[in-house]
């Protein structure tokens, strides 16, 4: 079970990242949950200052940009 | 029907119905405002999109991809040198915050994990005002004078505001969050001069492609009958009668203005260098472009280029719809610059509230700007419309400084980060500073 968290205050890039993460998880066919973190104070707790960011199982994987579904697949492996 | 879930849609439909029921089509003011809005959008499309906005998007895209944000944030971290932190915070908006939605997380990060309240507020104030896109568009549409004043004002006052916030709250510096700042890995290192040359050639293309010919003379007009403000037209006088003056301005547009409003005409000193550059501008642009293509081909990898194009496209997609909407709204509400180009709001109102350079006009501009929400870059057409309807130069700067830095929604986020009292103090400082810079700029311009 993978836990994916998307950090972002709701800008278009965050939505794109959510889509890509969803696509990557579907393609890998693993069980997962996706959670959107929009509260800025919660985002800070991850030490992230540039949104959007992707967190996999509590680990910050990408900050400040939108990776492609293929790149996200590698991060989830 | 489930009324509980459907009432919002019903309300929307009723509102739309009422709006169209009472639509004042056929009333001259409404109809001409509609035309103004379309005219203004066409003017932007013809004059500003290809030569100004498109290169600006490429520059912004390049900055977001090739400038290592981690290396800038290093100076704003928890253990950063305090003096340096203020300096970096006040100018780093130009490379970091190309999109307004990234300003707030960065602000929160600098405040909670980094250099603290002072540098964080300095960044919050200057960031939106000095991002490259904003400066380029301000200088292009509202003139280089206002563009430079906006950048310089934002940087100077951001340091002052940051220092004041720090002094007021020096006793309660928050405990730093334990978390380490997570940063994107730095991009492939390229020597500084290569990056410098790359950016310089892009900026060069932007500057030379837009090189304007200076006119033969500059005419000063009073804005709006009985107006407090003035505006200038630069170009060549074609015809001058008792009633009207006809001028062909530097971009080739013919303008006829009532002679009663004419304040004075001065001859422009033509500099030969300016003329030579104007004549050779396309040759210079081509040379720069050739050099640019060569650099891109030699120094950059395929992946980097793809990322650059994607970032550029991202900005274009995000900003163009907002800007189009902003231009249409500004045209509809305020019309184009010049008499007989009024929008829905009469020029006399704008002129009475924001004309001249009084304390009241500057304060009004600052307060309105602080609470109003401006989507990225839309402050430019709105200020252009206001200036056309009689807003003074000082209040224009005040609005440009207070506007993008704050809005009611952003205040709420800021409040959730640093609390109500600090937010109120910050808003108060921003309004005061914007008013003061407006007064100073209005007096000397």
Task: Summarize, please.
The complex is a heterodimer of chains A (77) and B (445). Chain A is α+β, with helices and mostly antiparallel strands.
Structure description:
The complex is a heterodimer of chains A (77) and B (445). Chain A has one domain (2-76): Glutaredoxin (3-Layer(aba) Sandwich). Chain A is built from three helices and four strands. Chain A has helices at 12-28, 40-45, 69-76; strands spanning 2-7, 32-37, 53-56, 59-63. In chain A, strands 2-1-3-4 form a four-stranded mixed β-sheet. In chain A, strand 1, helix 1 and strand 2 (32-37) form a beta-alpha-beta unit. In chain A, helix 1 crosses helix 3 (69-76). The termini of chain A are close together. Chain B is α+β, with helices and mostly antiparallel strands and 445 residues long. Chain B has 19 helices and five strands. Chain B has helices at 3-21, 28-47, 49-66, 69-73, 82-91, 93-96, 103-112, 117-126, 132-142, 144-168, 192-209, 272-299, 302-334, 347-354, 359-371, 379-388, 393-402, 408-418, 420-444, and strands at residues 217-222, 230-240, 244-249, 254-258, 262-267. A five-stranded antiparallel β-sheet of chain B has the order 4-3-2-1-5, with no helix packed on it. In chain B, helix 9 runs parallel beside helix 16 (379-388) and helix 11 packs across helix 12 (272-299). Chain B starts with a helix and ends with a helix. The chains are: A alpha+beta (77), B alpha+beta (445). At the A-B interface, helix 2 and strand 4 of A face helix 7, helix 13 and helix 18 of B.
